[in-house]
Amino acid sequence: MHFLSIDPGERTTGWASFEKDGTEIQFGKVTGGPDIFMDWLEGLDNPPSEIIYENYRVSPHISHGFSKVP
Q1: Which residues pair with 27 in a beta bridge?
Q2: Which residue, 37, 41, 49, 55, shows the most beta carbons closer than 10 Å to its own?
Q3: Angle CA(38)–CA(58)–CA(70) in degrees, nearest 5?
Q4: How far apart are CA 17 and CA 48, in angstroms?
Q5: Considering the entire predicted model, what is its pTM?
Q6: Tens digit of each residue's pLDDT (9 = 90 or more) over 9-55
Q7: Is 37 exposed, middle or buried (0-12, 13-18, 19+ CB in 10 A)?
């Protein structure tokens, strides 16, 4: 795994891993909050070389369902 792309959430963090050439390896989600995600990340046998995360901004014109973002 070269890149690990994450979409952080309050309870669920989505992730996808990629090789350096952009080939997707796998994807999934970790539920339970940021501490559980960090435990998962620290437990990887093959950690990523780089981590990419989504910088999310809430649009006031769109419903965000269960989000508790101010």
Answers
A1: 16
A2: 37
A3: 75
A4: 8
A5: 0.69
A6: 778 888 999 888 888 788 999 999 889 999 999 999 988 989 887 76
A7: buried
